[in-house]
């Protein structure tokens, strides 16, 4: 797992300011491998579209993934012919590696990529990047599975795409609709913190980036696209699917064990400066409820099993107390780790002590219920005892969740306002800074975006530059 020695949080999103500067606003990366036939018409078409429709300066970067044909020569020729085109040569294959390398070195505030076949209609490009420029969203993706999308492709690819997204929803609780559409964009300040957490260097790179961003609470904007399948695509479907499933297992395991320091990607509440000082904003309530219910259901089965075992050699009150004590310790540990996302040993003893207080309340409810049952019926059946205990545990469960959330595992005590994560998470060894060479024309950066020397945040986003003088004309409504 990668590690990172400089954890932090992202500043609030802001509209990228427009002013005269020499930095392109948008850097569109085209990763290629042996695309000597399609590269030149693709780049020329994209350049013509951006020149005609995009109101700010832009750059097109060709990322050559160790091509063995004449693709490097074609890229060099385009770089010479078109001022807005540059090329980068990588000696190793991998779309994820190419995107990480170029995005990590780029100085543009908005970073995008698209496949060389231009299967996606370019009219979706401006809607893709506009929410990032405005500060509304952190990432944007094209979706072929949105209801208003228009897609032309064979049934096999359609089935594979939908099945893959169902797998992501079922295993990683992903809520975005299309992970693998080759049409995405990200803000640079987000990329500089998010990319070191992404391990994959191939086709799973997109999925891993989106899952981590979504789990961290970043805003992902989806754009319905018109998409026409490329019949000459060189993607190996079986090998890609196998690698993707391995990636799903790896990321799912990392999320389950808490080795992902996602608090580095936290945003302040609200984008209005008046809202950014709000403390203790409730976060993850729905997820915590689901996790608590799952843990509670398993704990109840464990408790009933223990009660039945202890009841063989002790009275009902003794069996209830022992079963509840053992299950309460296991329940507190499981909720601490799985429901409320607290990792590490820090505070574990205190949490268990507070959990025992909650256990005492549950003991009073269940013991009182058994006492009332015995008073009404001197020799109740075992099934009747279990039914009464289930009802009493349901009432105790509601109270237990409220006490856990407000007292035992409050957000403000564990990781600061709104994070819901313990300090130990910020030290988890997962995301080591990814060291890559910075090819021409990019400049190497030694500090994360917005991270000042005094530890405070500053606006490190380049200011936007209108590409043409008439773009600043108030009377131009284009």
UniProtKB/TrEMBL annotation:
Domain GtrA/DPMS transmembrane intervals: 292-409
Catalytic reaction equation(s): a di-trans,poly-cis-dolichyl phosphate + UDP-alpha-D-glucose = a di-trans,poly-cis-dolichyl beta-D-glucosyl phosphate + UDP
Annotated CDD domains: DPG_synthase
Broad class of the protein's primary localization: endoplasmic reticulum
Example GO molecular function: dolichyl-phosphate beta-glucosyltransferase activity
Pfam families according to UniProt: Glycos_transf_2, GtrA_DPMS_TM
InterPro entries assigned: DPG_synthase (IPR035518), Glyco_trans_2-like (IPR001173), GtrA_DPMS_TM (IPR007267), Nucleotide-diphossugar_trans (IPR029044)
GO cellular component, one term: membrane
Top-rank taxon: Bacteria
Family of the protein in this entry: Belongs to the glycosyltransferase 2 family.
Protein name: dolichyl-phosphate beta-glucosyltransferase
Organism: Streptomyces bungoensis
